[in-house]
Design brief:
Order of helices and strands: HEEHEEHHH
Shape: elongated
Oligomer: single chain
Strand content: 5-15%
Structural class: alpha+beta
Number of domains: 2
Strand order of the largest sheet: 1-2
Length: 145
Amino acid sequence: MAMKLADTAYMTAATDITAQTLELLKDLKVYKYTDDSGSANRIRYCIAGQDLEKKIPEACMTDGIGMKYTDEVLLIPFLIGAINSLAAKGGSGSQDTAELTSAIEALTARVDALESASSGTQSVEPQVQAAAATTTTKSRKTTSK
């Protein structure tokens, strides 16, 4: 295994980019393909050099005839940074978790009020209005890949 010097005492202008790593890796596509060069015909996986070059140019090289080559080992620190960013966002004290809990509580109160009203025990109007007043909504954009 090749080792490289990674001691902070020898790093010049070192900057923590952990917070940006997830954004840098976002939207990179992983391709499965058959390598038919030579006689191998092996299934392989990669990130296209054309895509990677736009996000992390240091991890891509173009040869004299325009073919792209990637240094996937260079991506390991980016992957670790992205994992750490995701772990930090998913903590139990995150704002998203608190908002979700609040929304669930408000919906539970509304369901309880509707169930009470349908059984004829009390009026649904005051409880539904109170629950609606405490409900907050946040629009989210979700995409499937």
